[in-house]
């Protein structure tokens, strides 16, 4: 046994409850603060977010399981992390300390170069112990109060070192996806009037747990609105979960660059569900329509209990099993190539017990939810109602929050009345049964090597 301790998560309340409560408690000012729509600071302001007097606690567009850390969902302390399980009982002996033959030398050098490029004060602000609670203190919410060094506060040279680190940790597609999300966050801010620190390219933070090493455990976290990358390293083993990625909108032109996100995830999901027979669909596709926020494993859900649903890999034909692996590979492929192949081997070992579940329609432009779930991987894709953005995707346009009619795709502020669409997508990847944040690997390391 690895010393896992079951913990029951607190009951989740919905985002609609959270936002309506804010309106009742603090009116428009509270809503503006909560959603990051205030216009009091620039991209180069100091790190962290401040709330107006009497406003609700930091929070924003993604509450609860949908990606934020809203009411009823609290941070799990690192020492209490059990991981996602189907019933509260951890499946043991899934992970082991071993050599992957995929070097992390360049990654370690890039991390050290970034840290060396910081001032003493900056470095102190972003470094924590390997088992720090900072690991679990991530959120999708734009106005969440974050620690660490903020990209918008760094010099161009320091930022380049940060991107070089991400370039070593991620694949080329993974880096492009991350940068695209950051740019569309800035587009969203511009479309809402600009001058909003949280809705910029710069409002993303680095923190480091442990010291970069080729032998000792360490890791880093990179997060902000619609991005949370948790990256644990032990020797040549890597765990890049939980990883949250999302965007609103998902297609726009920013500074002359046309950016389109989440097409591979959308197409691969549709290819998988369309490959199912009628009998398989009866198991995989829920009779319930997808709602505005269906994600289960977002921030604050580190000890989530989530039963398997859908059709298992054991019930699929060979071509369908390949499509399922292709779907998983889209998400795993944002990890650097060598470690992505290691990860895919782990997933394939449990393919018979990998379940595919779907909610919603299956047209090219449908808004839907799907989940891939096995003992070693959990992936969720969730199309949601736009909160801030409403209008033409080619250029900045009036925001949903500024619109008086609240109708159309924007649906006002997304408080349950909006229509989900592919213009607001959330995704998450986790490693169940104690794999997230490298928790199980760290425990094994401490038990066997110290």
The structure class reads alpha+beta
Mind describing the biggest β-sheet?
12 strands, mixed
Distance between the termini: 17 Å
Helical coverage, percent range = 25-40%
The number of E-state strands comes to: 14
3D shape: globular
Radius of gyration, taken over Cα atoms and rounded to an integer in Å: 21 Å
Mean pLDDT: 83
Percent of residues in beta strands: 5-15%
Listing every helix as H and every strand as E from the N terminus to the C terminus, the arrangement reads: HHHEEHHEEEEEEEHHEHHEEEEH
Instruction: Name the poorly predicted regions.
Output: 1-42, 44-64, 393-417
Number of helices: 10
Keywords:
single chain; 450 residues; alpha+beta; 12-stranded mixed β-sheet; two-stranded antiparallel ribbon; 10 helices; 14 strands; 29% helix; disordered N terminus
